[in-house]
Amino acid sequence: MEIFRKYGFDKPLFFVSLTLIAFGLVMVFSSSAEMSGEKYQQPFYFLINQVMGVAAGLALLFVMLLIQKPFYQNPQFIYGFLILTFLLLGLSLAMPALGTTNRWIHFYGLRFQPSELAKISLVLFLAHYLDKRKDKLGEIMTILVPLAVILIAVLLIIIEPDYGTSILVFGICTIVLFIGGLRLTYFLYLGATSSVLFVIYLFNAQYRMARITAFLSPDSDPLGSGFQIIQSKLAVGSGGLLGVSIGESTQKLFFLPCAHTDYIYAIIGEELGLIGTLAILLLFGIFLWRGLLVSWRAPDAFSRVVAAGLTLTVFAQALLNISVVLGLGPPTGLPLPLISFGRSSLLCTFFSLGILLHISQRKKGTRSE
Fold first, then answer.
1. Cα–Cα distance, 4 to 358 (Å, whole number)
2. Comparing C-alpha atoms, which of 165, 164, 168, 188 is closest to residue 176?
3. End-to-end Cα separation, the chain, in angstroms
C-alpha cells in the first residue's frame, strides 16, 4: 500500500529551488538590461519573459502537487511523452534555422527547445523499462531497446546541432541504466557504439575542434575562438571576494557574449564575487542532497530511479555550465538551471522538480495506516 501526504513534499528542496529561481530573476535583469534596452528599447524585456516562464512553471508545479495519482508512472504517459519528444525533435530539424541551428520549435512567436524534454522523457522511459524487466537484466536482448532509443535521441539532438546537450543526455541515460541495475559488461556495448557517433560528429565540424583548441589554449586566438573563455575568466576574476555589487558589471556591456544565458555565472562572479559563486554552488549542493534523499525514501524502484535521474540531470548540467564559465571545460551551450534566461529550460526544470516533489509526497504504508 501507499500513502499520499498532500502538501507533505520535501520543503528544503522546494525552498532551495525557489531561492535559485529568485536569484536567477535578479541576475537575468542585471545581466540583460543594457542589451535589452539596446535591442528592444525595453530594459525589462528579458526579465518580463523570464517572470512569465516562472509563473507558468509555478502553476504547473502546484497542479502536479495536487494530483494524487502518480501520472508519470503510467505506461501510456511514459510512451506518449517519449514519442512526443521524438516527434518534436524531428520537427525542429524542419523548422527555419536560428543562428545556423535547428534547435527550436517556432509557433506564433513562441520558441521551445525539444531537447529539454528529452532529458525527462528518457529518464522516465528507462526507469520504466528497467523496472518491468528487472528479472531479465542479465540478458543481452534487454539492452537492445534502450540502446536504440538512446542513440536515436542522441542522434536527433546532435544533428541540430547541439553537441553539449547530446553528451549530457547520453551521460544521464548511462547513469540511469547503472542505477537501474544493468550489468556492467553491457556498458561496453553502449560506450563503443556511442563513442563512434560522438567522434564522427566531433571531427565533422571545424568549430567544435576550434572550441577544444580554445579551451586548451585560449591565448592562441584571443580575439576569435578564445575570446569568450578569456572574457568569462576576466569577469569572475574581477569580482574578487565580494564583487563589484549588483548592476555594476562591465563584462555584460557587450564584452561577454551570452551574459544572461550560458555565461550568467560569470556575471554572478563579477557582481557578487567569490561569496556569490560559492552560494550558488552550495544551493545546488543542497538540491543534490535533498533530491537523492527523495530517491532514497521513494516508495518503489521506479520512483527511486526517476528521482535520482532527474536530480542528477539538474546537478550535472549546473556543474557543466559552471565548469565552462571557469574555463575548466570547452563551451557546451548549456544554461545554468533555474538561473539562466530561457523558458524551455526553466519550464522543463519545473516539470522535473514537480515530479521530484510529488514523489516526496508518497510513502509506503501498512494496511493499518
1. 9
2. 168
3. 9
